[in-house]
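Researcher: We're teaching a course module on how sequence relates to structure. For the next exercise, students receive a sequence and then see the predicted structure as tokens, so they can try to spot secondary structure elements on their own. Here is the exercise chain.
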Amino acid sequence: MADERSALQLACGLPQLSLRVHDNRPVPVSYTHLDVYKRQGSVSVDTVSTPKVEVFYWVTIMFSQTLGTALGDWTADSEGLGYGGGVVFFGALLVVVAALHFWTKISKTVLFWAAFILTRPLGAVVGDLLDKPLSDGGLNLSRYSASAVLLILVFAFILILPQKAGKHPSTEEKAG
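Model: And here is the predicted structure for the students to work with:
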């Protein structure tokens, strides 16, 4: 059997995890966090310091975008939640992750990746809710109107939830 790994995987020496679909063709799911953890000692975003690790993160982002969109669509369409139900479902899961961040000692890196992954299907169902026809359960906004709504929400959240600058680990090492 031929090696099914991509040129990117071969160049970076990273393994492939595959999900077998109905026609038994492999669909790459992700480069495993466990392998990067084993090689680098961390999967924290703060540790991205080599081209190999940076490639891992960009590939992870690419797959999470694609698969997250598919998950959002599947949840809203195939599972019958609808777009509004999908927004509530993925929004509630993000609230749980936020609560775990504030009220538990669960690894902040694990919670970051959980939130990172959940934002993709949430974004898909929010986008569909805004621009799909009313007959399909959407609000039938034009792309421009939907974009304006999202822009207003982003600015509102920035004003409502102000952030303070954090310290980057590399600046802490230089200071110490």
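Model: If you want an answer key for the exercise: Residues 12 and 51 are 9 Å apart (CA to CA). Helices lie at 7-12, 33-40, 51-77, 82-103, 108-131, 143-160, 169-175.
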